[in-house]
UDP-glucuronate decarboxylase
Amino acid sequence: MPSSAVKVLDKNGQEITSVGFDRFGFNSEVPIDDLRSLYLRSHYSSAKPNDELNPDDEGPHHAQFTKGLSPYQSKSIYYPEHNSISYTTLARFPPVKLLAPSQRKRVLVTGGAGFVGSHLVDRLMLLGHDVTVLDNFFTGSRTTVSHWVGHPNFELVRHDVVEPFMIECDQIYHLACPASPPHYQFNAVKTVKTSFMGTLNMLGLAKRTKARFLISSTSEVYGDPEVHPQPEDYWGHVNPIGDRACYDEGKRVAETLTYGYHRQDGVDVRVARIFNTYGPRMNPYDGRVVSNFIVQALKGEDLTVYGDGTQTRSFQYIHDLVDGLICLMNSDETRPVNIGNGDEFTIGDFAELVREIVEKVQAEDGDKPSRQVQVVYKALPNDDPQKRRPDTTRAKESLKWQPRWTVRMGLEEMVRYYKAKMAEGSL
Ligand SMILES: NC(=O)c1ccc[n+]([C@@H]2O[C@H](COP(=O)([O-])OP(=O)(O)OC[C@H]3O[C@@H](n4cnc5c(N)ncnc54)[C@H](O)[C@@H]3O)[C@@H](O)[C@H]2O)c1
């Protein structure tokens, strides 16, 4: 596999060449370039009018950075003059580990076509496991996992988790739920149904099949916290009737159900309380702060900060989260575990950092920005928490897990991802 052009250093200045660990009897390690070849590359190559169709021709508009990263992705040709696209499927897949049947797990990932889910799916597939994705494509998209469709270890099922579903499996990662405020507030009742009935159905499945069950809960269960940083035994400060309640209370009751099944029925459960996570494949238009800022800066628009910019957030890179989820699933830890990066930024400083990194990447690529972008401030939405930072002591102690990616490194990779998307015409 060709190595990527970009060197990533971890928090200690060591180069990151792989992600994952061999821990708790489950080896989740894969080379970073193998993962990158699945997302840091355009799916489309552009053709000029009357170009002869050659699926191997990457085209002149192909983003520099992503050139030649992988020969395994489906390629399609984009015609800017008609704004049309011709899709090509290749019956060739990225190489996956060959596991003995006794080592191969049958893993169900609900919400596997979403941002977090698709990265988890990539990792589990490269590791050689059998993966089934269950998704209703409300916020996720087939394109995030299309490079696996047709692979003998992979199955993609369109299904809404509020309806029961039966399948034999060993592990269930239950991620299905819209995660960004505009999406979960779009139909608040449906969000509560997804959180409650979806979790009930998947716990019922875990009970019947004796599969281990992991739910992706959220730092939002702490609401607007009065304790900083938030440890897992903090009970939270949530407005039960506010705009965010459908999500916050939905996740709280999903946790209640999870521990109900654990205590009453002996279901083997894991609860991950995920803090703000960012990375490639995030929907750039769903109002989450990292993608908002990057896309605004790349488009030469001003960066919008809601409030006075003094509210703080911590941001974790997607590969750290996937490491944490896999570690937790395979560990013996049944208590809730915070998975997040404790490096805290004010939103104002974070906007400045994004602006600086976008300018750096543009300079490295020889791009001339149309204008110098500014940071502008607007009114704060309801119930937006002032401060949020994980206490990850439990994850450190019981999973031996801690984030490796610096925010700067993650942001650079994400800027390059969105830049490639813009270059191919899909953003
Ligand atoms: N991304 C974060 O920063 C973050 C933080 C905390 C918690 N989480 C949790 O992680 C999980 C994944 O989040 P994400 O960021 O990938 O969000 P996402 O919106 O990108 O992915 C959610 C996926 O679930 C699917 N889905 C939604 N409702 C469904 C339903 N009723 N039936 C079947 N599929 C359904 C969507 O189509 C999508 O593919 C969510 O449970 C979210 O609450 C994410």
About this structure: DSSP finds ten helices and 20 strands in the chain. Residues 43-69 have pLDDT under 50 and may be disordered. Residues 110-111, 113-117, 135-140, 160-162, 175-179, 183, 194, 198, 216, 218, 274, 276-277 surround nicotinamide-adenine-dinucleotide (CB under 6 Å).
